[in-house]
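Q: Here's a chain of 74 amino acids. Please give me its 3D structure as tokens.
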Amino acid sequence: MIDLEAIKTKISDGKIDSYVESYLVISDKLDTLENELRQGNLEKEENDEILEMHDYLMEKIANYYIENHYIKQN
């Protein structure tokens, strides 16, 4: 299972590496989460919280790339 509190603690350092590593942890388990939800082993609310964190991390990573690579090159 994904420990959201551990992920929140990890990303509290504000480093992009922490965001990427946490994003990958969740991404690697998305199929498992879906199966757990279907089988009734995971509450919908908990699944939604994990997906929200996944989206949040994706947004932070995309913004970092845009601000630090794309904008600087143009």
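Q: Can you summarize the key feature?
A: The mean pLDDT is 94.
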